[in-house]
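A reminder from the course coordinator: this example appears on the midterm review sheet, so study it carefully.

Given structure:
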């Protein structure tokens, strides 16, 4: 997906050096800001088409994806243990619903990309979820499979649990700030 967005973005004439180290959404916003200075209409068209490209990719992937086997049971057990659960994701809400159609039955709040003004790694994404739940960072845990999750959790002073089901390995998650590493989500129950 990132490769496709970059290929599409390069057609705008904005040099790769202005966005190469950014996450996908941040690429779009940086290029939009650059284009908007001289060509507001082109900037708006670029932004709309780039976001449509991401959404299309997410929905196609979501159609072939299911939650990990122990996810629902783990979430039920966490709630039985009195834990509140928030999902903070850079994916769009439609893709989340395709993958996990009954997610609202298992979580207290889900904040997808299209439901927030500020997207992680911006800490306001997580803070919005915590505020809604009436929680503070120091009493919350960030559970995720990406370095971004661990770095953000560390920045907010949260306990960070790295799950080894994503593209980041144990060393990468640890370096990014993981306090605990687990192989799969169900292992979280051993640490509650």
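Designed residues:
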């Amino acid at each position: 997906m990132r490769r496709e967005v970059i290929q599409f973005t390069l057609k705008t004439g904005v040099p790769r050096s202005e966005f190469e180290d950014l996450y996908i959404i941040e690429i779009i916003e940086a290029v939009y800001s650059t284009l908007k200075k001289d060509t507001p209409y082109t900037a708006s068209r670029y932004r709309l088409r780039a976001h449509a490209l991401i959404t299309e990719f997410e929905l196609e992937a979501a159609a072939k994806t299911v939650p990990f086997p122990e996810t629902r049971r783990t979430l039920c057990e966490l709630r039985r243990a009195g834990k509140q659960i928030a999902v903070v994701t850079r994916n769009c809400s439609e893709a989340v619903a395709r993958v996990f159609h009954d997610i609202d039955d298992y979580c207290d709040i889900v904040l997808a990309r299209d439901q927030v003004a500020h997207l992680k790694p911006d800490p306001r994404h997580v803070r919005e979820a915590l505020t809604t739940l009436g929680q503070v960072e120091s009493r919350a845990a960030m559970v995720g499979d990406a370095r971004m999750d661990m770095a953000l959790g560390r920045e907010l002073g949260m306990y960070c649990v790295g799950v080894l089901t994503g593209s980041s390995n144990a060393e990468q998650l640890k370096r990014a700030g993981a306090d605990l590493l687990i192989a799969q989500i169900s292992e979280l129950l051993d640490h509650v």
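Residues 40-63 form the longest helix (24 residues). The chain has a mean pLDDT of 96.
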